[in-house]
Amino acid sequence: MNRLVVLLLALVALYLLTGLAQVGPEERAVVRRFGEVVARPGPGLWIGFPWGIDRVDRVPVRTARQLRIGYEPEGQDIALTSPPGQMLTGDQNLVNVQIVLDYAVGESDSDLDDYVLQRNQVDAVLAREVESLTGEWLAGRPVDEVLLTGNAALPAWLAARLPDRVAANRLGVRLQRVSVGSLSAPEEVRASFEAVNAAQTGIRTREHQARQDADQRRRTAEADRYRMEQEAAAYREEQLRLASADASAFRDRLEQYRRMKANHADVLTLFWWEEMGRTLALMKSRGRIDVMDAYLGKDGLDITQFVSPKK
After folding, report:
1. Is 107 part of a structural domain of the chain?
2. How far apart are CA 171 and CA 112, in angstroms?
3. In what order do the strands lie in the sheet with 54-60?
4. 41-51 pLDDT, tens per residue?
5. How far apart, in Å, are the Cα atoms of 127 and each of 11, 80, 113, 273?
6. pLDDT in tens, 198-235
7. In sequence order, what are the residues at sequence separation of 6 or more whose Cβ sits closer than 8 angstroms to the Cβ of residue 100?
8. Start-to-end CA span in the chain (Å)
9. Burial level of 162, CB count in 10 A (0-12/13-18/19+)?
10. How many angstroms separate the CA atoms of 105 and 125, rounded?
């Protein structure tokens, strides 16, 4: 009898101990009492009602999860006519695509409740939504654009639209990163696509080089134009300065003539001979005329000998 009592007490004690739960440092718990959420304790020891009354679900909220959706480069069954992740592009070509999704459980109370209720369906719902959006993106683009820009453009496109889909399904998770794990043409035509991509890469390289050459020539032409404009401006300024100096000298000489004419009536003749002397000297220096001073008479120069130009 005593043994039976001790056994019953031990069983009761063990049953009561099921109401204890240890929540880890990176976890949060959701406590449901007869199905209704009554508490969401953080890290530490939780003391509640035993099993059958309380149910404690511990959730690692700071643990990142990774989900690979779509085509698996290795291990595919070659007998499959359409392996997972093989989709049609807008121009009816097949591509193999795999999306890598990193996510974690949200830390708000509503996120915890949603995740605990749907934790067994989270991966399946995420995979379905990612496949739906990926198919939509592929269907709107030709295969060349998909293969050339997909690794960069597709993750950004998914990251902008997937959070709304996740929120609508109330999964209680938050997305951290979306990336492309694999994006390629089917194995049967991959070599042809790679050859086309190599040719297109060569075309883009030559186009880039041509643009660089055009830019260099444009910069050289701009430099030449600027230099010629500066030289023309400098020449203009120099000619204006010389013309201004000539005009000023002429005005000074005219004013001098007017002053001297008042006292000397023959001053104009003096100026004329002065200018003629300069002219004859210039002509002589160029070999066009030779002044014979030995034949000067009382009336001035009598004989002028023209000679042929010097060779």
Report:
1. yes
2. 9
3. 36-39, 27-33, 54-60
4. 666 665 666 67
5. 45, 20, 21, 110
6. 787 888 889 999 999 999 999 999 999 999 999 999 99
7. 66, 67, 68, 69, 177, 178, 179, 180, 181
8. 153
9. buried
10. 15
**Domain coverage including residue 32:** 2-60
Residue 149: pLDDT above 60? Answer: yes
Same domain for 96 and 160, yes or no, is yes
Q: Is residue 243 part of a domain?
A: no
Q: Note whether 174 and 106 are within 8 A (CB).
A: yes
Whether 66 shows a pLDDT value over 80: the answer reads: yes
Same domain? 98 vs 44: no
Cα 230 to its chain centre, rounded Å, is 37
Strands 86-88 and 44-47: unpaired
Q: End of a domain among 122, 156, 185?
A: 185
- Alpha-carbon distances of 94 from 26, 73, 99, 135, 267, rounded to whole Å: 43, 15, 16, 11, 106
- At which of 142, 157, 185 does a domain end? 185
Pairwise CA distance, residues 37 & 41, whole Å:
11
pLDDT category at 305 given cuts 50, 70, 90 is very low
Same-domain pairing of 46 and 126: no
Q: Give a yes or no: residue 227 inside a domain.
A: no
pLDDT on residue 79? 46
Among 89, 224, 67, which residue's Cα sits nearest to residue 147? 89
Q: Over range 70-98, report the average pLDDT.
A: 76
